[in-house]
Each structure stands twice: as C-alpha cells, then as structure tokens.
Amino acid sequence: MPASIFEEVDHLLGAAVTRRTATRFSCPSCGSAHVAQVLGDNGGISYVCTACGHSWS
After folding, report:
1. How far is CA 18 from CA 12, 15, 22, 30, 44, in A?
2. How distant is the alpha carbon of residue 34 from its chain centre?
3. How far is Cα 41 from Cα 57, in angstroms, rounded to an integer?
4. Which class for 49: exposed (0-12), middle (13-18), buried (19 or more C-beta within 10 A)?
5. FRET label pair with 3: which of 11, 29, 42, 50, CA 20 to 30 Å apart?
6. What secondary structure does DSSP assign to 1-57, as a single string?
7. What is the pairing mode between strands 45-49 and 55-56?
8. What is the predicted pLDDT for the residue at 11?
9. How confident is the model at residue 12, as a pLDDT?
10. What is the mean pLDDT of each run of 10 residues along the chain (57 residues)?
11. pLDDT recorded at residue 40
12. What is the pLDDT, as a whole number, of residue 50?
C-alpha cells in the first residue's frame, strides 16, 4: 500500500502511460506535476494542483 496519495497517483499515472501516451500537466502557478482533473460547476473540465491548491480550466 502506498504511503501517500502522491505515490498512489504516480503509480496510477505510470500504469496509464504504459497503456497509452498520456499528456502530463503542470501547475501554471507552482510548476508541480501533481494535478487533478475535476468536473467544473458548469459541467466543464477544470484542473486543480494538489500541491498548492491553484485551480484553472
């Protein structure tokens, strides 16, 4: 079992990359690669940095 959520996300992203080509995002505010895709209020897709909390769409 992973020691943190970051290890779990890295594990899942690594599995996805081995199955297909994945685009990795980085936070425009802090540059972290720890970015989650979330459903926005209007039904669109937004992103949130789990390192600094910055969100964008």
Report:
1. 10, 5, 9, 27, 27
2. 5
3. 11
4. buried
5. 29
6. --SSHHHHHHHHHHHHHHHS--PPP--TTT--S-EEEEE-TTS-EEEEETTT--EE-
7. antiparallel
8. 67
9. 67
10. 66 53 76 90 88 92
11. 75
12. 93
pLDDT at site 42: 80
Q: By the 8 A CB rule, do 22 and 14 touch?
A: no
Cα(52)–Cα(17) distance, rounded to whole angstroms? 24
Distance CA 13, CA 16 (A): 5
Tokens linked to 7: 């290890």
> 34 and 43 in contact (C-beta within 8 Å)?
no
4 CB neighbour count, 10 Å cutoff: 8
